[in-house]
Amino acid sequence: MTIKLYQTKEYDTDFSTKIDSVETADTYSIVTFSETLFYPTGGGQNCDTGELIHNNFTYKVVDVFRDKSTDIIFHKVEKFFPRPGDSVFCRINWDRRFRYMQWHTSQHLLSQAFIRINPLFKTVSVSFNTELCTMDIEGFPKGDDLVEVEKLVNLKCSENLKIEAITVKDEDLKKLPVRRPPKVSGEIRLIKIGDWELAGCGAPHLSSTAQVMLIKIIKHEKIKGNLTRIYFMSGLSAIEDYSQKHNLVRNISMHFSTGSDELMERFNGFVNAFTKTAAQLKTVSSELGKILLEDAIKQAFIFGAGRLATITLSGERIIIAKEVIRSFSTPDVILLLLSIDQENVTAYLVGGHGIKTELNKLVAPVISEIGGKGGGRPQYVQFSFNKKEIENFKSRFMNQLKSIK
Ligand SMILES: [Zn+2]
C-alpha cells in the first residue's frame, strides 16, 4: 500500500521521495512511491495533478489513480524515464487542490444540512468534475428547503468550525452519530466538522469551515427514481462566478441606464415593447406585401401556360419576404420573389392555384447552371445564389418558362 500523505498533511504542497517502481510506455511512465501527497481520482473527485522534478528536469503529473485491491497509488507522468531508487521532488497543483478541498468540504456541510432539515434527504452520490459540483439526494426538496439549506451551510462557514480527521475501530462506529457508514472496515477514517458533521471519508479536507468562504446552490432537478440532483458552487469558484455575474448585470444595467434593482422591470418593459413592435411589423409587412403583390401581378409577364409575377426585395425590406409569400394565393400566377441580402440572393418560386408546371423540376437545371443551392416541392421552391448571377438567372429562367407549352 502507498502511505497517503494527503490524509495527514492536507496543506503540504510538495514532498521528496524515491521511486518504488516505474513502467514506461512511449510517451509516459506509470510511477509509484512509498508515500504520496497526490490524491487519486475517487469518491466523485478528480485527482491532484502537479509536477515531478528529477535531475533538474520537470515533468507533468497528469493522472493519479489507486488500485483498490492493493491500495497502491499510481502516478501517470508525461515523458519520464527514470529508474527505481531515483530521488525525486514532487509538487502538487495547489490552486486545484485547494478548490477541490473547498468543494468537497462544502458537500459535507450540504449533505449534513439536507438531513437536518429532512432526514429523508440523504446524499447518495457526489461529483466534483468541474466548478459546478453536483450531489444527488433522495426525495424532492422544495424551493424553501433549498433556501434554508443554503442559509444553514453558510452559517456553519461563518462559525469557523474545526475540521479534523479521526480514526476509530469498527466496533466503536455504532456509538457514533455517523452520517454515512464507511465502505471500509478495520481502522476507519472519519471526518469531523465541529460537533455538527461526522462521516467516513478518505479525501483531503479544509482545516476549518471559514475557508469554504461561500456556498451557493445554483439549481436543482429531478433525476431518475426518487432522486434530486443539486448543483452548487463554492469557495474561490463561487466568488469568481459572483464577480462574473455581477459584471454581466452591471453591463446590462448600463445598457438600460438603470440600477440592478430596477433591471427586471426595465427588461420586462423591453420584452413587452419588442412583442408589440413585432406584431405591428407583421401587420405592416402583410399590408405592404399585398400592395407589392397587386402591383407585380398587374405587370406580370405572360407566357404560354400562365403569368409570372416578380418581386425584388433588398435592404431592410427583405424582412417582409415570408409575409409576401404567405399572402400570395392568385390562381394561374407563378410568383418569383428575389430577396437580396448583400452578396446573396434568396429566391422563392411559388405556384398559385391551377399551375400544373412542376416548378422544382423546371428551375433545377437553372439553379445548377448558376452555381446555386436549394430545391423544394412542385409548387414551392427555395434556393440561393450569388448576386452577380442575378441577370444570368433571370434570362435562363425566362427561357425555361417560354419552353412551357
Ligand atoms: Zn470528505
Question: Which secondary structure elements does this structure contain, and how are they paired or packed?
Answer:
Blueprint (H helix, E strand, L loop, with lengths): L2 E2 H4 L5 E11 L3 E6 L1 E2 L13 E5 L2 E11 L4 E7 L8 E6 L1 H24 L5 E5 L5 E6 L4 H16 L4 E7 H4 L13 E7 L3 E4 L14 E8 L4 E8 H21 L7 H36 L2 E3 L2 E9 L6 H7 L5 E9 L2 E8 L7 H11 L3 E5 L2 E7 L3 H13 L3
Parallel strand pairs: 1-4, 17-18
Antiparallel strand pairs: 2-3, 2-8, 3-7, 5-6, 5-8, 6-7, 9-10, 10-15, 11-12, 12-13, 14-15, 16-17, 18-19, 19-21, 20-21
Helix pairs in contact: 2-3, 6-7, 8-9
Bound molecules: zinc ion.
Zinc ion (ZN) binds next to helix 2.
Commentary on this structure:
This protein has 405 residues and is of the alpha+beta class. The protein folds into three domains: 90 residues, Elongation Factor Tu (Ef-tu), domain 3 (Beta Barrel); 153 residues, 2-Layer Sandwich (Threonyl-tRNA Synthetase, Chain A, domain 2), CATH 3.30.980.10; 124 residues, Diaminopimelate Epimerase, Chain A, domain 1, CATH 3.10.310. It has nine helices and 21 strands. Helix 2 crosses helix 3, helix 6 crosses helix 7 and helix 8 runs antiparallel to helix 9. Zinc ion binds next to helix 2.
